[in-house]
Amino acid sequence: MVSICGGCNAMRPWSAAIVGFLASFIMKGLERALMKLQIDDPLNAVGIHFGGGVWGTLSIAIFKYDGGILMSWEKRSFAVSFF
Prior knowledge:
Layout: H1 2-5, H2 13-36, H3 45-63, H4 69-72, H5 75-82
């Protein structure tokens, strides 16, 4: 949910499902990293909100349906999307 909120008006439903699926791995990775670093986060708010939010923001450049990297396949779309 958190990862798709940033680009909900710019992505197709199938790409939103991919973004959410990949965000689950990011969340679990951050959860394990915080446990290894012995940082107390009982609600896993960092993994959910920070990890999902950053991934969701970056995924707009990849999955945007009228100019994203996967949708347009132009060399300059990478630079335009990220910069």
